[in-house]
Amino acid sequence: MSDAIHGHADVGYERVVNAFARVWSAGVLGGGALAIYDRGVPVVDVWCGSRDDRGELPWTESTSSVIYSASKGLTSLVIHRLADRGLVDYDAPVAEYWPEFAAAGKSSVTVREVLSHTAGLSQVRRISATADDALDFQLMQRRLAAVDRDGLTGKPAYHALTIGWLMAGIAHAVTGKDMRALYQDELCSPLGIAELSLGRPQSDTGVVADYVDPVGTFTAICRDRVLARGARMPTLLGGALTGSIYAGPGAGPSFIAPEKHLMDTQMPAANAVSTARALGTVYAALTTDGTVGDRRLLSAPRVRMLSGPRRLEFDRVLGLPMSWNLGFHRSPIPGLASGFGHVGASGCFGWADPTSGLSIGFVHNRLPSTLVADLGAFLWLVPLALRAQRSAARQAPASPPMTNRIAG
Asked: Is 189 an annotated catalytic residue?
């Protein structure tokens, strides 16, 4: 496996690039990419490691990866684009747009409740009997429309998979389009991005990395019998968390493998595919007035709404204090990082910090068996990026800085 770093970084960002390189230290399979923008201007664009599960094929600048729950931030932006055009009101009942959703006493559930994980529909086990069910996104939307709310109604309870189908149901009711098409129309086209899709890319612009389980822990804990047992446990003992992700028999490790089933469905909470560069570009628009260069994603007032007040509340599914707002979350640790975004199960994330003007896209192909290194990357890389920005400002010459080329 190659551990050489490729790409470029502006002067002052050397420490954050070195930190990124340590994540892909020799001897551990996997690869990834990091992109950082300062007020929409690229300052770091680096990649390293391998994109296959044998460590033989190098990660390249066009390699993309499934970003798992970081998909939620992108999917919510589709809803925000529709709200910007007056097609969706956050405080309107979902049933106003999607009449079937009023079934089983849900007529008062609002779009805002869906986006804040308080809709009382977090448990995928209540609507899916098998993994094959969960691969049929239209079936999942119909079942969510028909089911009643659960015992976590009105409380923050991470809708790990269901929020994606709920947002897709709202968007389809308004536009007549599925979420895969809306990713192209509402995210890629406005920003001129080719390396972003929901599920399998529709073009030949890049290669999707295989997933890698270098330690083997993920494969061991996600067997059907383990997940089924966990889903039956009481809420406070982890039952709600397992119940939010376990889609029934067959939903083990092979279910989420990018090269297998996951790529051929629409799972808007979990199977977006992106390069770090594309993810960083999307979030760059959220650090400014909604634009990147001469391309507009959202209106300036809409962008300001996305930061939202910081309200740490105990999440009944995650078992952690979280601050949710309109499809995004703040840092779970006060003072560690300002801004908002969404981190995925494997540690992939997109982040926007309007205060500093930094946006970050980080993607890779390791699964959570390297949880400390990968999920910790967010808690590590974001503060490092902020310090690097200050360092770059101190070193800035009178003329624009020369970019450091990095190649192995």
From this structure: no
